[in-house]
Design a protein that fits this description.
- By secondary structure, the protein is an alpha+beta fold.
- It has one domain.
- The protein contains 3 helices and 5 strands, in the order H-H-H-E-E-E-E-E.
């Protein structure tokens, strides 16, 4: 007897919850999240295919902070990185980039860690060389 009473109670709770469910607001939030994910992916793809990856000036970037954006693509998190970019002959510059990071590289994003980078004319024109050495 108790099982059917619980099922009836759950059914009643579900109907009550669906009365307050705003589908348009949910769709609007989903579209906003998708637009942000597309923008992040476009920025990552632009950095990966830019000439800076091949011809940029080698340098180093010290991680000052790293935080996930909450977006995952193919089980890989998007991470916002605050970096202090250092290139020989230039002043160190703080840069923030959003990067799709492989799971195996997440441990390298602790504050104080140093990453190999290639930099274009501007410090934010940056390519992180995950397999390079500093």
């Amino acid at each position: 007897m108790g099982f059917f009473k619980d099922v009836h109670q759950l059914n009643k709770m579900g109907k009550e919850a669906s009365k307050n469910w705003d589908v348009n607001a949910q769709l609007s939030r989903a579209q906003g999240s998708m637009a942000q994910a597309n923008a992040n992916m476009a920025a990552v793809a632009a950095r990966a295919t830019s000439p800076v990856a091949a011809t940029g000036t080698p340098g180093s970037a010290t991680v000052t902070s790293a935080r996930t954006t909450g977006q995952y693509i193919n089980m890989q998190p998007m991470v916002a990185l605050d970096l202090l970019v250092q290139v020989p002959g230039r002043m160190p510059m703080p840069v923030t980039v959003t990067e799709l990071v492989d799971q195996v590289h997440l441990g390298r994003l602790l504050p104080g860690a140093v990453l190999a980078v290639k930099v274009g004319d501007r410090p934010d024109d940056l390519y992180i060389d995950w397999f390079g050495t500093v």
